[in-house]
Amino acid sequence: MATVANDILIAYPPVGDHRLRRIVALPEHVRVTVGLDSSEALDALSGAASRAGRTIGVYVEMDVGMHRVGLPDVDDIVELARRASDAPGVHYRGVMFYPGHIREHVSQQTPALARLRADLRERIDALAAARLAPQVVSGGSTPTAFASHSVDSMTEMRPGTYIFSDRTTAEIGAARMEDCAFTVLATVVSTAVPGQAVVDAGSKALGREPLRGAAGEGFGVLLTAHDVTVHAMSEEHGLLRLPGNGGWRPRVGDTVRIIPNHVCYSVNLHPVLWAVSDSTIVDRWEVAGRP
Amino acid sequence: MATVANDILIAYPPVGDHRLRRIVALPEHVRVTVGLDSSEALDALSGAASRAGRTIGVYVEMDVGMHRVGLPDVDDIVELARRASDAPGVHYRGVMFYPGHIREHVSQQTPALARLRADLRERIDALAAARLAPQVVSGGSTPTAFASHSVDSMTEMRPGTYIFSDRTTAEIGAARMEDCAFTVLATVVSTAVPGQAVVDAGSKALGREPLRGAAGEGFGVLLTAHDVTVHAMSEEHGLLRLPGNGGWRPRVGDTVRIIPNHVCYSVNLHPVLWAVSDSTIVDRWEVAGRP
After folding, report:
1. Whose CB among A42, A131, A258, B69 lies 3.0–4.6 Å from A220's, allowing a Cys bridge?
2. B31 and B8 in contact (C-beta within 8 Å)?
3. Is-above-0.80 flag for pTM?
4. B135-157: string of b/e by CB count within 10 Å (b at 16+)?
5. Could you report the per-residue pLDDT of B80-114, keeping only the tens digit for each?
């Protein structure tokens, strides 16, 4: 899977010399864009890019309800966009946002999407009035992916979980459970305690990720029996609560495949993924972005 | 830090050919002991060891209240110990347990330790009556480490978190906060949302580990300000809730050190630890056991 990217978005504040060094060391032919939300980050990027004799694209990150990073206030957004527009070494390309607060079931998202559309419109109008109309409006998320067309000002979408899907995505209706392409292969290592089976996939394999925006307990479900959950975990132990009389009764040594609540986290816990087609391993993918 | 171990305990059920292959491939001069709780695991180990022409030690794992792995029933314990005693390729060395259910503050553990002592005595007496008296009684945990002498039948202790300590250990009184030797160095990347600062250490650096057995919210605290917690996280974002008027106000680019709730989990998320003495890096430790 050797690919050459000509367009890279770094959707994370480029704070710290270690980040700036890596950004300006990217090959010259790559168009790099960086999202940021502070004058500190902008000024440092501008300085590093100028010294390296190159121009780095900038998105001003806006908070539209997630309350994590991004400027909430429209005047602050305009001010930072102006500063990006004036600074050497950087090119103001537009704005970005992440609507990660919209976690309702896809059938219930209409009001939240309407608010998002209106909030974006207000900000973009203010930027346009200041002659800072964004060339790109970058947003998107997996829960809202199929409603992206309704966010009419958005020109770029960045859904992440989408590529594999997971239990959370399926529970909120953004995929079907049978669309989930990532599972953790685990072995039953103990059935000593009545009513449960213990597998060798715990929090270090699945992650202790909550099922956000949906009802349901546990940290993952079996691929072949969605009613069997990993209801508790230690680092190297996953505890499966067994169904009642006449239900599934695994033996020590049996293997199971587990769909995790949150695939992004589980991927990062593994150095390698095995691509499987019709029960045959067809490829080996190194998780290159893992620290 | 090159060390040669002559005595290795594998405190995890050796289920699956991949585990058995690695166990019997350990150097001949190493005395290997394996904990297990099923005849399936025992028989497979016995077969693999016999074929490899070596003898592997066995602890029969007992459940004393954690309800994770280990046999809860004394008759089952005696039966598996007898089977281990009779099987080729293995040597019955004793019993093991993990009292991970005892998570009270150290000042409140006396009743739980008394129950543990009595439960162990009952099981050991039953084994002795069957001429299967354990040579080793292996137990221990970090929360109970300093009370180990009160568990009078125990001959081996295996506290893990103990080596670094963490916020949980400190909160339950098994260490002081200033004993915590492991911190995550993080950089403030955003202060755009009022009332909070965002650092570049989220769940992929700290782990989403609860503060078990103690009151308190969040996933870690600042080394220099224990009242500032990481109150929420995304994968690459840690959200610090800032104290009220006149309190600490970080700037983008500032660095902080965070004591995680659970150090064992955080260690596994990093490929390398840096050993620091008086603000100077004195060593680099690879996390060799990380997958």
Report:
1. A258
2. yes
3. yes
4. ebbbbbbbbbbebbeebeebeeb
5. 999 999 999 999 999 999 999 999 999 999 999 99
What ipTM score was computed for the predicted complex, to two decimals? 0.94
Residue type, B205: A
Q: List the single residue in A with minimal CA-CA distance to B287.
A: A291
Cα separation, A17 vs A201, whole angstroms = 37
Bigger pLDDT: B181 vs A227:
B181
Is A71 within 8 Å of B270 when comparing Cβ atoms? no
User: Which residue, among B23, B43, B103, B193, would best test binding to A if mutated, counting the most A CBs under 10 Å from its CB?
Assistant: B193
- Would the CB atoms of B71 and A236 count as touching at under 8 Å? no
Pairs of residues, one from chain A and one from chain B, whose beta carbons lie less than 8 Å apart: 140
User: How far apart are the C-alpha atoms of B97 and B121, rounded to whole Å?
Assistant: 13
Length of chain B: 291
CB atoms B192 and A239 under 8 Å: no
Residue B116 in this model has a pLDDT that exceeds 80: yes
Average pLDDT over residues A197-204: 98
With beta carbons under 8 A apart, name residues in chain B contacting A41: 189, 252
- Give yes or no for a contact between B141 and B101, defined as CB atoms under 8 angstroms apart: no
Q: Looking at residue A209, what DSSP letter applies? A: -
Per CB-CB distance under 8 Å, the chain B contacts of A201 are none
